[in-house]
Structures are given as C-alpha cells and as structure tokens.
Design goal:
Layout: H1 4-28, E1 33-35, E2 42-44, H2 45-61, E3 66-69, E4 81-89, H3 91-95, E5 102-109, E6 112-120, E7 125-130, E8 135-137, E9 140-141, E10 154-157, H4 171-178, E11 183-185, H5 190-198, E12 204-208, H6 212-224, E13 228-234, E14 237-243, H7 245-259
Parallel strand pairs: 3-4, 10-11, 10-12
Antiparallel strand pairs: 1-2, 4-5, 5-6, 6-7, 7-8, 8-9, 12-14, 13-14
C-alpha cells in the first residue's frame, strides 16, 4: 500500500488550498451558477474550479490512481486506489453566501475508505482520519458524543434534490423523528453534518439518496471517532445513518418501520 500518512498530509493541503480559494471568491467576486438534475441541484464555476485543482494534484502525485469526483467523469485507470472528491459540498449554501460548505477528499483501497479529509473554510477546521488511526480536528483527537437515547439527542438530516417528485422525500421520517428528539438541524451540507457527528457537536444523522462523494470521508471520520455507520436501501433508494450504536439503532427502527 501507499503511505497513507503522506497521502493525508497532501489531501489536507489540497483541501486547504481549495477551501481558501472558495472563501476568497465568495467575498470578492460574483460567479456563474448553473443547475444539474433539478432546479435546486446547483453547480457553480467554483465547484468546477475546485475539482480541477484537486484533480490536478492527484494526477501529479498519484498519476496511476482512479478519481471519482462529483463534477466530472470517473477516471478509471484500473487501480486498486480511488480518490473520491466532493470539491464543494453545500453548493446551494455557497451560491447564497450562506457560510456552511466543505471540501471533502477520501481515498479508497479497493472497496474500503482508508483515508478521509474534510475542510470547513468558514470555521478554518481541517478534519482527517486514517483507517485504524483515529479521527482528528486540526490535529486534536475527536470522538462522537456519548448520547444513547434520541430524547436527549441533537440530530441532523437533509432532503433530496428531487423532493418535489420522489416518493422518498424524507418528510415521513422527519415528522416522526422530530417528535422523539431534543432538536433537529439541517445545515445543507452532508459533509458538515458528518464531521459534526464525528466531533460530538451533533449526536446522530440520517439522510436518503447521498452519493459516495457525500459520505466517503465523513463516514470514515465517524467510524474512527468511535461511531457507527449504517447503510441500506429502502424503496430502491440509499439510506445513510450515523451516530452512536444506540442512536443508529433507534433511527433505523423508526425509518424502516415506515417503509418496510
């Protein structure tokens, strides 16, 4: 295997550079905004620029590796290693100058994520994890919260871009879970929510229809911070739940009882 410590150092540098560029562009310049799958599924020229920056670095240092990015085609080089990039998670926020957005970079070996980095530019927090080595926020060890019951938990979620037309719009689980918990948060960035779970700021998280680039780095951070990640499909749609073992079990029971 490659040296994962070296890979993490590089990934942190790339995420920092992309995030600092995003923050400066948000302050100083207007930028082009387009739509993708729906009118609420946005992409900005800053998303594309950020992914190009990160891809260029990967191709320089690891030219033989595959690259899976949100904003461009899968680069398959028949490698056991695949970089998974969400160059600007929280594009809807960014497009409205709402300061919750992240840069997410993960590295897979075969089918397993072995390294992950998430940078939150507006907080200047850089999260990192290597499989089996723990999770860190700017060099300090982090752990999930110790909450084990939903009635005392602060929980985060999100809604799919096609919520207007899909059967799985997350409203039924939202309505049930909301009555069982202490509070709910909806940041608009899955990567932000996942590092909040890893660091104990949020106790648990669930969301439908996430893509691999949304959760690859964040999922590893949660596992390395002592948490649990559960993934399945309901009504042919992906479901992702994270938090302590007990909270994941409670959320899973509520959600699966709705759809099964």
């Amino acid at each position: 295997m490659i040296n994962l410590v070296d890979a993490a150092v590089l990934a942190k540098e790339w995420a920092l550079n992309a995030g600092k560029m995003q923050k400066e562009k948000l302050k100083k310049e207007s930028f082009k905004i387009d739509t993708k799958s729906t009118l609420t599924d946005l992409v900005t020229e800053i998303d594309l620029l950020s992914e190009d920056m990160i891809r260029a670095k990967i191709e320089r240092y690891y030219p033989e590796h595959n690259i899976l990015g949100e904003e461009s085609d899968y680069s398959d080089k028949n490698s056991k290693y695949t970089w998974v990039i969400d160059p600007l998670d929280g594009t809807n926020n960014y497009a409205s100058s709402y300061p919750i957005y992240c840069v997410s970079i993960a590295l897979k070996y075969e089918s397993e994520v072995v390294m992950g980095v998430i940078y939150i530019p507006e907080l200047d927090e850089i999260y990192s994890a290597i499989k089996g080595k723990g999770a860190y926020n700017s060099g300090t060890v982090i752990n999930i919260s110790q909450k084990t019951a939903l009635n005392s938990a602060l929980v985060a979620t999100g809604f799919p871009y096609d919520k207007k037309d899909t059967k799985i719009d997350n409203l039924a689980p939202f309505n049930k879970i909301l009555k069982e918990i202490r509070g709910i948060r909806r940041s608009g960035s899955a990567a932000f929510d996942l590092v909040a779970v890893a660091g104990g700021r949020i106790d648990a998280f669930w969301e439908f229809k996430l893509k691999e680039w949304d959760y690859a780095a964040g999922g590893l951070l949660i596992k390395e911070a002592g948490g649990e990640v559960y993934q399945t499909e309901l009504e042919d749609e992906a479901l992702f739940i994270a938090g302590s073992r007990e909270l994941v079990a409670e959320l899973r029971e509520i959600i699966e009882n709705i759809y099964l």
